[in-house]
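Thread amino acids onto this structure.
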């Protein structure tokens, strides 16, 4: 029977495009569909407004994985530029360097507050929460209750729209891995004293503390536009403006039957041996036929959305930060991006562009507010913070980003384990990759690594790698390291054959 493609990829974000690139590089027939009719890259795309370019969320090109770094340079060899990482925290009317500078933080917090923070940290170390279950528990153990209240609580609750006591400790352990107060203070002292010491061989860098990164000259979309061109040049098909309607496994023919809808409402049908999905798990599961028994678990998964209000300012230099975290509860904005500091080529000469990020849920009051109201709010708040006068803003636009962050609530782990047990055991040729495809809040290098390893599994004809063991730093383990391995006994994992697929 004729099959349209060996691999059908759902979603043309970093994960989907990485998988397609690795497979087409090995001359495998691949079809990729993308819901957006114009842009690839997903949340890592570059948005254009008049002569201004801006990033949806801010994407550093930094990874501990040399394979990922090499792939970036292979796809976009001449357009990655080095950028200094500069960021601050706005708290209580003051700006704090982030990562912290010890003497600056001491001065701005004051001796009394700083002493209270150290005593709180000492108490947390002496009497830790035995089994930290929530974000609050985990941060309190690592930093102490006082620093949790100052530097974590307000911003985190803005991002997630829920109490820190409702957020799983998994999110903190994953996103702030390897960092505690002692590490932060030691690094802060080194920066305050301008001490630079080469790390010992094999020593890692806490990702939160990196001081530089690479970035495409005209934003992250350059990377994914280049990847799309290469995929097509290597024989892959990339179909824009397509949305998955249904996915059905035909065991007799040993293939998947896939139906998609075009932007015009027309339906197209394809067949493939493997399916790679980077679509949100909550959207994928209901489209599988017959309906998986884990449907209710998929429907229980939650996502946090956000919108960016881009303010155009008639001033060339405002401040050097790439972004500023806003920990002040008196304003709704959570983070402010400065796109000229990401790359000067994103903003015309003599101008600046700030991206004020508001975290919300799709359909809530903020999400549904008219653009004019959101722009007025952003101008008021940027002036209140003291970054720029409202009168200096000469133009603006709004970009909404649904399903930006998978929510780590208290039930998410059990829901994902149930979905994996159901789908991976029944469908070994269905592969979930990337942030939303795995419901794991990670960076784009992590998403790329899950896709790269999935491509190697397909090329090898068996699951040599457990992509669920890839952590936030884009490190990974050979198959068998998964935390829910016991629930997935139907999946064959063969770590001893990993070396055979390195060419992918």
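Threaded sequence (504 positions):
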């Amino acid at each position: 029977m004729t099959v349209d493609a060996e691999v059908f990829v759902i979603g043309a974000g970093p994960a989907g495009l990485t998988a397609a690139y690795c497979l087409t590089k090995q001359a495998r027939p691949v079809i990729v569909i993308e819901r957006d009719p114009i842009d690839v890259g997903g949340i890592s795309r570059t948005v254009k407004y008049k002569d201004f370019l801006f990033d949806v969320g801010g994407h550093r090109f930094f990874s501990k994985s040399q394979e990922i770094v090499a792939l970036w340079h292979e796809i976009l060899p001449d357009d990655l530029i080095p950028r200094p990482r500069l960021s601050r925290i706005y708290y209580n009317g003051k700006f704090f360097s982030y990562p912290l500078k010890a003497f600056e933080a001491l001065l701005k917090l004051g001796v009394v507050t700083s002493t209270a923070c150290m005593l709180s940290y000492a108490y947390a170390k002496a009497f830790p929460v035995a089994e930290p279950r929530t974000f609050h528990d985990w941060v309190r153990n690592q930093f102490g209750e006082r620093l949790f209240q100052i530097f974590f609580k307000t911003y985190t609750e803005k991002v997630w729209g829920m109490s820190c006591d409702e957020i799983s400790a998994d999110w903190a352990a994953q996103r702030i891995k390897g960092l505690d107060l002692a590490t932060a203070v030691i690094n802060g002292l080194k920066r305050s004293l301008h001490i630079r010491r080469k790390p010992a061989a094999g020593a890692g860098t806490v990702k939160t503390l990196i001081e530089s990164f690479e970035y495409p000259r005209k934003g992250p979309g350059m990377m994914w536009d280049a990847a799309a061109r290469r995929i097509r040049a290597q024989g892959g098909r990339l179909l824009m403006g397509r949305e998955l309607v249904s996915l059905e496994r035909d065991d007799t023919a040993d293939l998947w039957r896939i139906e998609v809808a075009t932007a015009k409402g027309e339906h197209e049908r394809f067949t493939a041996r493997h399916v790679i999905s980077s679509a949100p798990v909550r959207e994928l599961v209901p489209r599988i036929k017959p309906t998986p028994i884990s449907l209710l678990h998929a429907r229980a998964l939650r996502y946090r959305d956000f919108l960016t209000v881009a303010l155009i300012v008639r001033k060339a230099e405002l401040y050097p930060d790439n972004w500023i975290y806003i920990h002040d509860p008196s304003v709704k904005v959570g983070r402010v991006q400065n796109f000229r500091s990401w790359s000067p080529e994103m903003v015309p000469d003599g101008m600046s562009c700030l991206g004020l990020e508001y975290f919300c849920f799709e359909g809530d009051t903020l999400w549904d507010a008219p653009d004019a109201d959101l722009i007025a709010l952003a101008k008021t708040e940027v002036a209140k913070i003291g970054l720029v006068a409202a009168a200096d803003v000469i133009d603006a636009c709004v970009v909404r980003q649904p399903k930006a962050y998978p929510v780590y609530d208290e039930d998410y782990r059990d829901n994902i384990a149930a979905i994996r047990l159901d789908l991976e055991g029944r469908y070994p040729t269905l592969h979930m990759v990337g942030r939303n495809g795995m419901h794991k809040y990670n960076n784009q290098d992590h998403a790329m690594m899950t896709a790269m390893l999935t491509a190697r599994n397909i090329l090898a004809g068996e699951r040599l790698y457990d992509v669920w063991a890839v952590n936030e730093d884009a490190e990974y383990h050979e198959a068998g390291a998964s935390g829910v391995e016991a629930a997935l006994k139907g999946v064959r994992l063969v770590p001893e054959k990993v070396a055979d697929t390195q060419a992918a």
